[in-house]
Design brief:
globular, 417 residues, alpha/beta
């Protein structure tokens, strides 16, 4: 045997094997694309009396983007959680319009009109006296004034200062509470209806309040129309955004979050007041979990509405896991991500994703995270996903030692949205 030729042939075969393996690896990556709504959603979500979800669903490898067609207009929802939220909000709009079409509502608006005119006149002729009498408590006045001087930033989702002054924003919160909807939602269909009803100094709200109990099904609308967490209901109704910022700042301080981080988080105007508060409430419900400031650090840099909602859902996932599965001892940073560590040596990644694909980008991230975790000495690594994981992604993750949990929402008691 000519050993020189043998080694040359052997080297060539090894190279060919490496190249073929690399090609197979490249081919095994999945690409983002379109999904079919009828294959991934239950029938009652796809279609209802007031909406129809478009059959074509765009998936970016992590989240789905849905188009909702409704009798009140079209709307897009990024993530299945937001889709369900928007559908419930559209149902609420339908109920609002039903009540407004009643004779009782028309009569109530006529009866209230005089009081509104007089109130507006007083605001012009005696603005100081009128505004002063509309504020509940000197302490609240000073706390809000102080908030504006300590880094409090109005959210992009808030109304104008004049709307707050005239009582429109409080009127919107009252309607939102009665119908169980998020008054800071990015759903334009809902916002248009809330703005219409809360105008004229909230006259529509006053009439609506009196009619909800009289219209068949009206009293139960907040329960039947929405799956919102009741935890935030009273707080979101009774607290103006400035009050929420003050409350959140105090809770963050009690968690040990530094003033610098807290200021940056509170000043992030991309978050809606509800999203920002929901994150704080979720973390506050984990009093024995150390290093909660780590989660706030990552939440602070969210720079678009989809990411803000993602962080809200993620915080609620960790709270649910901590409450129903196993206590989370501490939050830990893993690269640019936040994970939970349990006393039993498990590392937990909770992510509100719709359909996770084994894309080139995610494969690189999973590999880097896995290598980082190798040096931490954890016994088990768990990934909890609210939606589904593709076969390729599951097999690849399990090959890296991950235990994958799909459809996590129902298993950990995650709020509907």
């Amino acid at each position: 045997i000519n050993m020189k030729k043998f080694y040359k042939l052997s080297s060539l075969m090894t190279s060919l094997f490496f190249v073929s393996t690399l090609c197979l690896a490249v081919q095994s990556f999945e690409s983002a694309g379109m999904l079919s709504a009828t294959k991934i959603l239950p029938p009652d979500v796809i279609q209802g009396p007031y909406h129809q979800v478009d059959e074509n669903v765009a998936n970016d490898g992590f989240l789905n983007t849905y188009t909702i067609h409704s009798k009140f207009g079209d709307e897009q929802a990024t993530s299945t959680g937001k889709l369900r939220k928007y559908i419930d909000e559209i149902k609420a709009v339908a109920k609002m319009k039903e009540i407004q079409s009643s004779d009782e509502f028309a009569k109530g608006m006529t009866d209230k009109a005089g009081a509104v005119v007089e109130g507006t006149k007083a605001l012009v002729t005696d603005p100081v006296g009128t505004v002063s009498s509309s504020i509940s408590g000197v302490g609240k006045l000073f706390s809000r004034a102080g908030e504006s001087l300590t880094g409090g930033s109005r959210s992009d989702a808030e109304g104008s200062r004049m709307a707050s002054l005239l009582g429109y924003e409080k009127a919107k919160r009252d309607i939102g509470y009665q119908f169980g909807v998020d008054v800071y939602s990015h759903n334009k269909i809902l916002q248009d209806e809330l703005n219409s009803l809360s105008g004229a100094n909230g006259t529509g709200t006053l009439v609506m309040s009196g009619l909800l109990m009289a219209v068949p099904g009206g009293a139960g609308v907040a329960v039947s129309v929405t799956g919102s967490s009741e935890m935030l209901g009273d707080v979101m109704r009774d607290s103006a955004p400035a009050d929420l910022r003050k409350m959140n700042r105090e809770k963050l301080a009690a968690m040990g979050v530094s003033t610098d981080i807290s200021d940056l988080y509170i000043a992030n105007a991309v978050y809606t007041p509800r999203e920002q508060t929901a994150i704080v409430v979720a973390l506050n419900n984990m009093p024995d979990t150390k290093n909660r400031a780590e989660f706030i650090k990552f939440a602070t840099v969210s720079d678009n509405p989809d990411m803000c909602y993602f962080r809200q859902r993620q915080a609620q996932m960790y709270e649910g896991y901590n409450r129903t599965v196993e206590p989370i001892d501490s939050f830990v940073p893993v690269g640019h991500l936040t994970a939970g560590i349990t006393n039993t040596g498990k590392i937990i990644f909770n992510v509100p994703l719709d359909y996770l694909l084994w894309t080139n980008n995610f494969a690189a991230t999973a590999s880097a995270v896995s290598q980082n975790i190798d040096s931490m000495g954890v016994k088990e690594r768990h990934l909890w996903v609210t939606g589904m994981v593709s076969k390729a992604a599951r097999e690849s993750l399990e090959g890296m030692g991950w235990i994958v949990h799909e459809d996590a929402g129902g298993k950990i008691g995650l709020p509907a949205y």
